[in-house]
Amino acid sequence: MTDLRNAHRAGGLKTVRRLTVHEALLAAGFLRWVTRRGPHGVPDGALPVPYAPGQAAIMYGFFFVCVVETVGLALVIPWPVVHAVTLVLDIWGCCFVIALHASCVVRPHVIGAEGSLRLRYGALLDIRIPAGRVASVRLERKFPDGRMAAVDGNGVADLAVGGQTTVTVELSEPVRYVRALGRPAEARVFRFYADDPGPAVAALRAVAGPA
Q: Kind and range of the H or E element at 166?
């Protein structure tokens, strides 16, 4: 029983640590966005592949709804303590939505000059595919309904934005990664969204191994 409690405590501390790091990365991404410092983690010679424009309308819509909800609840809740707690949570929700979008803007996918591929979703997800692991790539618009970076029975992981993906990459061997909430996964095919998929596909084909 003691070991079980210790395991739960360790798991809880790990989750809290991960959430704390994520909040710090969101704040850093927001500051980079408002100060226009350029994309994060894009070395010289690498190609950034933006995906945030595909969700901009949705994210700004969420932000507007959060603002309306914050104002509305501030006007109708009469109890001071409940009013204060609700106001803090609603303001945090507004900040979270805009910071999440900002982190997606400043953390695009990256195609390295040496052939590596880095797939990201803001500060939530970071998948590194080593150079030479890409076997084939193609333009392919899909509308998956699964969870972000979840792997299906065929070893396919989808990184959809706005409910769609535009590029499919097949690897010569599977790649291990960590999903948004810390769960390990392994996939051999990645489908991701690129706002302008043409240059991304051309760059990957230039460095792809034999199909």
A: strand 165-178
Rounded to 5 degrees, φ, ψ at 29 are: -65, -40
Where would I find the beta strands (DSSP E) of 83-164? 109-111, 117-121, 125-129, 134-142, 156-159
pLDDT in tens, 5-22: 544 455 556 666 777 777
Name the phi and psi angles at 196, rounded to 5. Answer: -125, 90
In the chain, what are the domain boundaries? Answer: 109-207
pTM over 0.85: no
Angle of CA points 73, 75, 81, to nearest 5° = 70
The Cα–Cα gap between 54 and 50 comes to 9
Residue 124's contacts (CB-CB under 8 Å, 6 or more residues apart) are 22, 100, 148, 180
Structure tokens, 149: 């970076």
3-state SS assignment for residue 86: helix
